[in-house]
Every structure is written in structure tokens, then in C-alpha cells.
Design goal:
Layout: E1 7-13, E2 17-24, E3 27-34, E4 37-39, H1 46-49, E5 52-57, E6 60-66, H2 85-97, E7 104-111, H3 113-116, H4 125-136, E8 139-141, E9 150-158, H5 160-170, E10 179-185, E11 190-196, E12 201-207, H6 211-229, H7 240-249, E13 251-252, E14 264-265, H8 267-288, E15 297-301, H9 305-308, E16 326-327, H10 335-344, H11 348-358
Parallel strand pairs: 1-7, 7-9, 10-15, 15-16
Antiparallel strand pairs: 1-2, 2-3, 4-6, 5-6, 5-8, 10-11, 11-12, 13-14
Helix pairs in contact: 5-10, 6-7, 6-8
């Protein structure tokens, strides 16, 4: 058995966020960072320099900068993002932010179900290998004091399966289900898959109807709200990031308690946009599985579940009538990454033995 002290890290690097779960000092920790990155040269600001990375891309070294906002960003919705240098850098940046710089780590990652399986329904082993190999390519930070983690091994799981594993851990009744429709609503995409009791994916579909659709709709509705209400909110000039904040808080205005009376309630606008997105997602669900009577339950996960599942302020749950049994975890945004961590348990000893033989 290897003598190295490896840290097992579950990763869910989606189009909107990178989520990590691992154990430190006997406690499970979860970190979430935005999937915002641009290709470019070394930056001059110290804060950006520490988030600037060099790595090999298509046979030559290129630089990438992880940012909190901005334009000219890498398209994380592109299927090839999953095996790209930008994806590799974002995962390493997240590991460093979580305090795992310089550590020996074993990573378990996910692939969207439409990439984990080929068009004919077979496991796409070449794509899975490409995902794993991509994360094993070294990166280095422009800041010489920052040492990236040493990724020794990568396991890859289809996204829908860890979501169900995580839910079964929280909701024991789900273990009785013969089939569950898993809906993962993210920032830019919505992945849907029917998973059977043996954790096999029966059918699947991915759409680009993520929460960004709702954000754009709220932006348009706020302009109508301004025109009809007579309230001056400069809706046309609101940026996307600020609209996301407005959705989560339910009003326009300062978050300071002293300014409470000056806030403008826009929950009616937000509810309308949420209802419309829920109908779009429901239509997508019908395309992957026409008759919902054929499945035992529907599991809604991903950060988008908070937006349409009745978890924001006083908004209703627009998914309640999707099925007789609809489960939404308390923290749907971390369901997949927690499930990946649980899925690692049965293969840990096997991975360590393999690394020991290799070394």
C-alpha cells in the first residue's frame, strides 16, 4: 500500500460552478467557486496574478485567468470544455482555494450523462479517459509561492448517478425506487436522466435551458415592471450579476437594514419568470420520458432547484405537480458533489492499491 497521504476529493465542475467535497480533520467540507475563466496573458494586479495559470493546450503552453466576473469568458457550455485546459485550470484553482495546494489528491469528477454514454447508449470509455487524462496534465501558477495540488488519479462518474446516491443518503425511501428521473438544473444547462435501481442510466437528455434563461427573462420583465409601475429602477442598465442577486433576495435596493423601507418588492416578476422556466423544464422532461407514471419519483438537484422549487423567500414550488413524488434536497446545489464523494467509498482501497503498484 502506498505511504503517501492522499486526500480524496469529489469534484462537480459544471458550467456555472465548481463544487468540491472532501474530508479534513474528520469533517466533511464543501466549497463552491464560479466557473468563470478567460484565456489571456499574465495580469498585473496581484489578485489576478494569483489566479493566473499556465498549462499545455493543444501542444503549446497557454495562460488562463480565473475571474469573479467579466467578459470574453471561456464557454463552459461547450461539450469540449469538459476535456479542456480551461476546465483543468478551474479545478486546480478550486483545489487551491480550498487549501489543498501542494497536497497529493485523488480526484473523482463527473461527466454529463450525454458524454458519459455514447449516442448508442454504451459507456463512452474514450471520453471518460480523455476527461481523466486532461486533469492529470500539470499546471503552474504565475505566483511562484502557489504550488498546485498533485493529482495522482482521476475517477469519473455520470452526473445523474451521484445525485441519486446523495439523495438516498438523505432520503432512505428513495432506496425502494425501481426508477428515478433525475433533473439537474444548473446555471446554463439542464441534465435529465432516468436511473434504475442498479444505478444504470436508462435514458437521458441535456438542454441549454438553465437558470440563465430565468435571469434573462427577469431582466426583460423588470423593464416592463418599470414602465407600468412608474418606479425608476433603471432596469435596462442592470447587469446579469445584479439580476441574479435580485432574484435571490426578492427586491431591488440596499441590503442594509436601515434602507429596508426603500426597497422595491419585485417578487411578482421573479415568480412569473420562475413559473415560465418551470414549464420549459417540464416540457424538456417529457422529451426524455413521456409518461411520468413509469417512474417512482422525480429528483430535482442543482443550484437551479432553489429558484423553481420554492426555496427562495416566499416563492411557491413550481415543481410540486411534476410527479406524485418530487424530492428536492435541502442543499440541491451540492447534491452531485456529495454523491460523488459517497461513490468513492467502494473504490478507495482499489485506487490506493493501484497507485502503490505504480509507484
Amino acid at each position: 500500500m502506498t505511504n503517501k497521504n492522499y486526500t480524496f476529493v469529489a469534484v462537480d465542475a459544471g458550467s456555472g460552478n465548481v463544487a468540491l467535497t472532501f474530508e479534513r480533520d474528520g469533517q466533511m467540507e464543501t466549497y463552491i467557486t464560479p466557473s468563470l475563466i478567460r484565456s489571456g496573458n499574465q495580469q498585473t494586479l496581484s489578485s489576478e496574478t494569483s489566479s493566473s495559470w499556465l498549462t499545455t493546450d493543444a501542444g503549446r503552453e497557454r495562460s488562463y485567468v480565473v475571474v469573479n466576473q467579466g467578459a470574453d469568458l471561456v464557454d463552459t457550455c461547450d461539450p469540449d470544455y469538459q476535456v479542456s485546459a480551461a476546465h483543468r485550470v478551474l479545478v486546480n484553482e478550486a483545489l487551491v482555494r480550498a487549501g489543498l495546494d501542494g497536497c497529493d489528491v485523488i480526484v473523482a469528477e463527473t461527466l454529463p450523462v450525454n458524454q458519459f454514454y455514447s449516442d448508442i447508449g454504451k459507456i463512452d470509455r474514450s471520453r471518460i479517459k480523455a476527461k481523466a487524462d486532461n486533469l492529470l496534465i500539470p499546471v503552474r501558477n504565475f505566483n511562484g509561492d502557489i504550488t498546485p495540488p498533485r493529482i495522482a488519479h482521476v475517477e469519473v462518474f455520470p452526473e445523474a448517478v451521484p445525485a441519486l446516491i446523495s439523495a438516498q443518503n438523505d432520503i432512505p425511501d428513495l432506496a425502494e425506487a425501481e426508477s428515478v428521473l433525475v433533473v439537474d438544473l444548473g446555471r446554463f444547462t439542464c441534465d435529465m436522466a432516468v436511473v434504475d435501481k442498479d444505478m444504470q442510466v436508462i435514458s437521458r437528455r441535456t438542454s441549454e435551458n438553465g437558470i440563465h434563461r430565468m435571469i434573462l427573462r427577469v431582466h426583460a420583465l423588470l423593464q416592463e415592471f418599470e414602465a407600468t409601475s412608474g418606479k425608476n429602477i433603471n432596469a435596462k442598465d442592470l447587469n446579469i450579476d445584479s439580476i441574479d442577486t435580485i432574484i435571490r433576495q426578492g427586491y431591488i435596493g440596499s441590503r442594509l437594514e436601515a434602507a429596508r423601507n426603500k426597497r422595491i418588492d419585485v417578487t411578482s416578476v421573479i415568480s412569473q419568470a420562475a413559473s415560465e422556466l418551470a414549464e420549459i423544464i417540464r416540457a424538456d422532461i417529457r422529451k426524455v420520458h413521456r409518461n411520468m407514471r413509469d417512474v417512482d419519483a422525480l429528483l430535482l438537484v442543482g443550484g437551479g432547484a432553489n429558484y423553481i422549487g420554492g426555496k427562495l423567500h416566499d416563492m411557491p414550488d413550481y415543481t410540486a405537480d411534476w410527479h406524485d413524488v418530487v424530492f428536492i434536497p435541502d442543499y440541491p446545489e451540492t447534491s452531485i458533489v456529495r454523491g460523488v464523494y459517497f461513490a468513492l467509498d467502494p473504490v478507495r482501497d482499489e485506487i490506493l492499491a493501484e497507485l502503490s503498484e505504480r509507484n
